[in-house]
Each structure stands twice: as C-alpha cells, then as structure tokens.
Backbone:
C-alpha cells in the first residue's frame, strides 16, 4: 500500500505539471487515503496537495495542507539542526528543502486568500521561508533566491 500511495502521489505531480489539476487532486487524495489507512502522513503529499489546491484557487484548503506538512516536518528540522550539514543524510536535506518550500507555499496561499490586504500570518510565513532557506540551503541557493523574489514581489503588490 505504501508503494501505491507513492505512485498516486507521483501521478498527481505528473498531472499537475500537465495542467490536469482536478485529476492531480484526485490522485493526491487517493495517496492521502492510502497513507491514512497505513497510519502514515506524508509531508510531501500534503505539500503537493497544497500546490494543486493553490492552483485551483482553493486557498483556505491549501493553507491547511501547508500547515499539515510544516507540522509533520518540524521534528525533522529540529533533528537536522543537531547534525552538522556535512553529516546530514540526503533524506534530511530533502526534508529541509521541502520544509522551506512548505513555508513558501503557505505564504503564497495566504497571500492569494486576500491579495489586497495580506494577513500578518502571510508575512510571517514568508519570513520563516526566507530564514529557513538562507540558514539551511544558503543565500545563493536557487530556492532561496526564488523565495526572496516572491517576497519582494508580494511586498510591491501589497
């Protein structure tokens, strides 16, 4: 079942890239259901659901999924902070990257909820994304640069 869940997650990602958002969400929800049946919750599935929901304009639900992924990844980040970067496993580095992206996704979903007057929570999420990205990925990492650009664009649009 775990492999099936991963397969549905991958199908959802592929569908999203092809612009088939409703189908992507259907596959991702199947992955979540299988994970639930296994007693698991995958932060990457929640992050992918968040991205699809944001693309569909369902921002309130996207916020919930982003917060779920962040909650699931927080212990991983706390563990990673106790290990020097050179000794981190590839899985930990992947999770740190995902954690950063989830903060960014949360900020973007919150911004889209109310583009004329973003909530303080939106700006806090951007700050968390930038801090995490700069601290763990580096100031020149493409993800850091993309998040900083999104933040500056949001500030100019606010």
Residues:
């Amino acid at each position: 079942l775990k492999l099936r869940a991963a397969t549905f997650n991958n199908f959802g990602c592929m569908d999203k890239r092809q612009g088939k958002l409703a189908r992507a969400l259907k596959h991702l929800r199947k992955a979540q259901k299988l994970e639930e049946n296994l007693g698991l919750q995958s932060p990457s599935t929640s992050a992918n659901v968040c991205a699809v929901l944001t693309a569909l304009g369902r921002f309130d639900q996207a916020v919930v999924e982003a917060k779920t992924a962040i909650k699931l990844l927080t212990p991983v980040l706390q563990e990673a902070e106790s290990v020097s970067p050179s000794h981190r496993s590839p899985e930990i580095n992947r999770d740190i990257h995902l954690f950063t992206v989830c903060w960014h996704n949360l900020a973007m979903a919150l911004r889209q909820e109310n583009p004329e007057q973003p909530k303080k929570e939106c700006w806090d999420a951007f700050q968390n994304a930038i801090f995490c990205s700069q601290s763990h990925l580096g100031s020149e990492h493409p993800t850091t640069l993309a998040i900083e650009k999104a933040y500056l664009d949001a500030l100019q649009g606010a």
